[in-house]
Amino acid sequence: MSIHDDAEKIRLKLDEENRTTVSVALFGQPGAGKSSLINNIVGKKVAAVGVETDKTIKAESYEANGLKFVDLPGYGTKNFPKESYFEKFDIPKFDLFLCVSSGKLHQADTEFFQELVKRGKVCIFVVNKHDELWEDGVRVEELERRKTEDITKHVGQPVKIIFTSCRQGTGLDTLNVEIQNNLEDAKRERWARGAKAYSTRFLQEKKAACERYVAIASAAAAANGINPVPGADVAVDVSIIMKLFKEIRHDYGLSENFLTTLKQSSIPVVGRLANNVVQYAAKEGILMLLKSFVGRQAVKSFAKYIPLVGQALAASLGYAITSSVGKSYHDDCYQLAEEILNNQLRE
Fold this sequence. Notes:
By secondary structure, the protein is of the alpha/beta class.
């Protein structure tokens, strides 16, 4: 296969990666903390918290990092009768569902869940506001058991129940993993990249998914060469690398404002890594980084992606440079996210 064939294949693969999204529908009664849950899953505020929206009119939709969340209105209400509900909200399109509660389940939620089961859809029950689960003289484990028993009785079958607290950050990693385990391969990777890491295990999943994306985007940048690399007889597409770097920053929760704060950190390694991430984000920084890798060999850890990008393209100088640059930037972002997570876990 020629380098031109490899290039066309990798362009299609990158387009496919960029189009992949995970769609999650949430349902449950108002006040259960669905907006807070969405914000904590993606690691930034995308849904307004504490603001009552008129759920009798429409579904509320939020999107970030390739993850789409839809807060569905009440099932079987006057405005949204059962007979037309599934068609109106195109229920089959969602990858999975979260039934979010903090009190008693309502009959409408139970009925909607049972209809989802009939259609083979995955639904995870989330008991949110776990920090408010309290009764004088009763252990938390007993209260969880009672809640589990109550939900099981209401829905008429054993179901997966996860207890979360957005205030304390508990249960969010368990929820992330459970959602990921119920997705197909491509969407599992999209979830790993887009959801916030609350554990070192999930951060490692994110790292692996990001490395694969870096390899694909780096190959596309090499294949679509339009910008000469200083000091080398080769051209690459800097715009693809810029988009790649932006995606990686978002995947690790490194917003512009957050990076500005991190640059002033009293922890030397955090300040250094944050400076690197900011310095190489713009076109000038990318060209400087590309120049620094001219003449070096491609990073060996990317060899496992040769079947994906193609032997001819993988052997080219353009890919040797772009993959090395992509890996270098990703490593800085990953190490910065790892330092932040470790500090949070110690606290």
